[in-house]
Amino acid sequence: MPAVHGGPNSAVEAACETIIRAHEACIVTLNTEFQRVFKRVMRATLMVVKDQNKTGWSHESGSEMDSGTRHGNVDIVRER
């Protein structure tokens, strides 16, 4: 997502929230591993973006996330 590192972007945040909510609804009706992983990745990405917008620090300077295991082509991110 190139827009994540491009600075504050409320439209990207709103779009991420919408996508996350849609996938949460899908998880209730069709519980698949992809949807659970996708939701975690999107939620973690959104948290990073929101933290950057609040504090003004760059992605490279650190965050409250650390990368976890790799699942196919998707990085699973664990929250501390």
List the helices and strands and how they pair.
Layout: H1 10-29, H2 33-55, E1 65-71, E2 74-79
Antiparallel strand pairs: 1-2
Helix pairs in contact: 1-2
Describe this structure in words.
It is a single chain. Strands 1-2 form a two-stranded antiparallel sheet. The protein is α+β, with helices and mostly antiparallel strands. β1 and β2 form a beta hairpin. Helix content is 54%, strand content 16%. It has 2 helices and 2 strands, in the order ααββ. It has one domain. The chain is elongated, with a radius of gyration of 13 Å. α1 runs antiparallel to α2. InterPro entries: XlnR/Xlr1 (IPR051439). Keywords: DNA-binding, Transcription, Transcription regulation, Zinc. GO terms for molecular function: DNA binding.
